[in-house]
Amino acid sequence: MKKTITVLALLAAITLTTAFATTVDEGTKILKIIDGQSNFEGSDFSATLSMISEDPEDGIDKTVVYQFRDDDGDKFLMLIKEPTINKGQGYLKIDDNLWFYDPSSRKFSHTSMKEQFNNSDANNSDFTSSSLLEDYKVVGVDEGKLGSYEVNILSLEALNDEVTYPTQKLYVAKNGNVTLKKEEFSKNNTLLRSSYFTKYQVVDGNYMPTYMIYQDELVEGKKTTIQIRNISTADLPDSVFTKSYIERVNN
Amino acid sequence: MNYLKIANRNVNRHKKKSNMLTFAIAFGTMVIIVIQSLTAGFTVNIENGITSSLGGHIYINGDEQLESGKVVSMISDVDILQAAIDEVDSTLIKSYQKRSNVSGTVIFHSQSTSSAVVGIDWEKEQTLKDNLVLTEGALVGIEDPNNIILSQDAYDDLAVDIGDDVVFSFQTVSGQENVASYTIIGVVQSNSLIGVSSNYVAIDGLNEMLGLQKGEYQSLTIELNDANNMVAIQQTIETSIENNGGILPLPQDDEDGGFMATRMSMFVTEVGQDWEGTRFTISNLGDYTEAVISILNIINIIAYVIFFIMLVITMIGLINTFRLIMNERVLEIGTMRAMGMQKKDVKKLFNIEGILIALKGVPYGLIAALVITRLASFIPNNSSKGALSLILKDNHLYFPINIGFIAFVAVLVTLISLFAVSRPVNNALKKTVADELR
Asked: A2-249: which CATH topology?
């Protein structure tokens, strides 16, 4: 009798483990899909971003930015058009280096992908290609609902200790595998930022979020809304992703 | 001839005039001593403030390269550093302490401010504990890893109160986001003059949040008994680290970015040097106080200018006073010479009178200076913030007494007095005895 119970318990454990592993595998596949849908391989990407930053201390700021991406070359350029005070400032990413250009000093300074973009709630890393599969592993998948959408809730854990957020939760729509919400946590598991991706546009078969809300979970009332317009996947000259280009457009 | 006795009698005989001269000398002496003492107090307080804020006179930071090539601020080769410190003559070192330091954002509800948090070993850092000037709260519970001493700047920006909980958002040494919650137990004045506006917490709790292993830390500061030894001791430590297989930054000409890149290495992720283990960057108080030293130099120059002006005023006052006195004592000089005194004897007599008056005036000036400085040092200045707080000691002006300088002033004033006497006397002696007696 005792033996039978042990065998049954073992079988149950194996069944549960297999079921869990399958779910995590599925989660990993979803992660791969998300990366694939967000990246533009074989073509370039350009768009105009309107950012509204709401800060309880500083009030509301509007920023208009031209975004250029070359995902194959791991490059991007963000050029600020508005407000006038920031006009001409640019962020240029080439491989692992991110440079910030200030037209008033006419100098480039080294900055980090982890830094906030122009004092908004968006990080510089939010504007580059997605590498979730490279940096995170799926440690759990739950099913749930976000508003009226059926979602898979992917719990992610960093594969190294150099990514900004050690853990994340992705709320991915079952229909289309697009991320609707993202929660990013600190090392001691405090929720730092919630991101909402409320509108998507299909661009060359990829799902591109066109309306995003980044909400600071530590500072009450602080958030940034980003709207993307004028999306194009036309090829961009290589010269766009150079320091001299930023200097030239400022002359 | 007993010149001293006669001179003393003359000084006492012309009481009104002598007192006038004594007052002039005393006033000049007093002003000179007060100004020198005030500027010396500024210098001492600024140096002490910087030393306690930065944790000592010599600062050792560590950088380590991760496998990815990223540079993080930490010291794990603790044995190499300890061996280097052990090689320094222990009588020269007052204390040394390990610190951790991270910049981030302090948040209270919808308010936030960028600020640095310093992890302190409160059991060992008695100097900082003694020098912290709290404007609010107390140091009770300072060792608790959940408590924080907030800088005045952060306290004002966040509009918080003692007992409020604030959140500190920062990155671990490897760059991951992390958050700590602290209860405010005190507020410390900000040293904005040197750009130091730190919040203080217990080091163990902060190290854990930064992702450091037990025994690791980010910087080590050494407080010396005599700041004049700091360059020599820095060299001893650097040599020892190299001899023990430790790594130091490349000389400034060999590394892109030079001196500033070396000093700011904790913020630099790309440097032209590959290494294993801890790379030690050592600096001293002088590297951080150039701006402050410039200000102190300006203060000293102003003090010397005032000192010089006071000397000139004192000298002119004495010359004029002596001239008036000489005019009234021409008859007396003529009588002395008629009785057989030589010119040089008369001159000697008046010189001794000048010295006696100076020696009488200097102690009065010194006493007046002591009274004024003591009274001024009792006046509290509780509203002082920022740069002003840096020149005060416990919210009070500080007037250190320099015996050597007082002796110097006494000699100088006596010489001036002699100079002031000599011209009117010489003029008086140019006349004939008959003219003097007329």
From this structure: outer membrane lipoprotein receptor (LolB), chain A (2.50.20)
